[in-house]
Structures are given as structure tokens and as C-alpha cells.
Amino acid sequence: MTLRGIFPVLPSPFDQNGDCDASAMVRLVDFAAACGVQGMVFPGFASEVSELSADERQLLLSTVVKAAPEAMPVVAGASAESVEAVVEYGQAARSLGVRHLMIQPPTKIGNAAAAVVEFMGAVASALPTMEIILQNAPAPRGSDIAPEAIVFVARVIPQVTYVKEETLPAGPAITHILSNAPDTLKGVIGGGGARYILDEYGRGACAAMPALEIADFHVALDDAWRSGETAEARDVYVRTLPLLTLQALYRMRLTKHVLMRRGVLHNASVRARTPQLDKHAIADIDANLAELDIVSGSQNARSAAE
């Protein structure tokens, strides 16, 4: 199986009491599937993963896997500060039938190739049947691993079959990795909330992992790009970019606000410390939704981008 297309990172829904809401998680999965995505990711940074307990992670991941359409790949985030914790998350995901783990090496080990190989090699040895997506996020959230080190890691650890490259700028790194990749590396996946998706695709990225709220538009862009309709893909990109720039500021608060406007979530509760949406920010976001013809609670997920 080759991962290709749009793989949104699903948010973690919370009820009014701040507890994980499994029924809302099912609605998020249904919405993603209706948008035509090629797969889903949970948990990730956009899932407020650092705010979830191990039990909550497992509950929501299990819900995602059970609710996802048959044969649709689910990528499980398994990043943690120790090899033991990563392996534990990986084993839990494997027990659900997940085949792909996304792992960011902890920042405490640094970004030297030898240290990353030692950490990821220990994980791979303990989880020999799993494919690994090496996530390379920018500092301070990530380690800013150099593309030369990424290639070295992929050569030494064949289970690293994908790289999610989202350092800034990601484009030159993607070019270097794909130009020097071993045969075992199946592809490079774009990140950065799809704010740079056309550059990433133009350099050969096989997939993208944006947030969920406008997955239908990202699927339309991906479809157009793969059909050779690059002008149409750029039109979708240009139309959505203003909202994505706001998403870079307000993160999961914007994601959940938009999903409320689309009738998927019933509240926009977050645990992570992110900027609050005041009335001016909400008016700006809603104006962008109006320009995209997204109607509260009644917008068909696929037709929105047509």
C-alpha cells in the first residue's frame, strides 16, 4: 500500500465538561470520509495530543479505526519522549490493525543522524511489522533534522518508509530527500497545514496531512493536481489560503470553530493553550467561510469545492 493523497489529522473532540467525546469522534470520521480523503491521522499535533492521557489516546484511536471505512488507512501518531512509550503506543495501534505509525524523534535527543538512528532503530526493532513515518517538524516543536540526516536514517532503517517533512522551508528538503532516497522510502508527505501544498506537490510529495476543517477543498485540489489540472488546483489553493493563514494563528480553535459552523461538532472546546477567538477573529473566519460558500450545518462536504 502506498500512501497518496489527503490524510487529515483529526482533532480530539471534547464535550462541554472537557471530557473526550467518542460520539463526536465518529462524526469527525464520517465527515472526513464524506470529503473523499484517502486516509486519516490520529493523534497528531492538531489533535492536542500532548493534552491527552494514554487511555484517552487509545479510546479515540480505537473509535477512529472502528468508524473509518473498510480498507481506508489510519495512521497512528506514536510520538513520545522515550523508546518504551513509543513502543507502547505502537503496540496499542497494532492491536487495532493499524499498519503505519507517525513518529517524531524527541527534541531532547537532538537532530544528529546517529542519535535519531539509535532512537528510531530501537523503535523499529520492537515493532518489526510496522511501517514508520518519520515526522520532521520545525523547532521548537520539532528537531529540524537536516535532509542529509533524514536520508541517512532512511538508509539505515528500512522500516522508515515515509517522511513527513514540515521544516521551513520544506520544499528544498523534500527535493533533497527524494533525490537521494533509498528504494525503501516510498514517499515524502507534506505538512504545514497545506499552506505550502503546491510547492510540496510540485517537488514530488506523495501526500499531505492538513487539519480537517476544509478537507473537501484539499481533496478537490489533490484530484485536480493528479489529473493535470494545475490551474484548477491553484484556484482552490488561492481561495483557501486566507483561511489557512488564520489557522496557523488559532490552530485547533479555528479547526473546531469551522467544524461547528459546518455542523460536525457541537462545541469548540479545546484543552491546548492557543489564542482565543475574539469577535473580530470570528468575524474574519466566518467571512472566509462565506467566500468559500460554506453554509452552517448544511454544506455538502464534496460539493463545497466544486
Q: Could you characterize what this model shows?
A:
Helix 3 (83-95) runs parallel beside helix 4 (113-126), helix 4 (113-126) packs parallel to helix 5 (147-156) and helix 9 packs across helix 10 (279-291). By secondary structure, the protein is an alpha/beta fold. The radius of gyration is 18 Å and the shape is globular. The longest helix has 32 residues, at 230-261. Strands 1-8-7-6-5-4-3-2 form an eight-stranded parallel sheet. It has a single domain, classed as Aldolase class I (TIM Barrel), CATH 3.20.20.70. It starts with a strand and ends in a 15-residue tail after the last helix. The chain is built from ten helices and eight strands. The model is unreliable at 297-306 (pLDDT under 50). Strand 3 (74-77), helix 3 and strand 4 form a beta-alpha-beta unit.
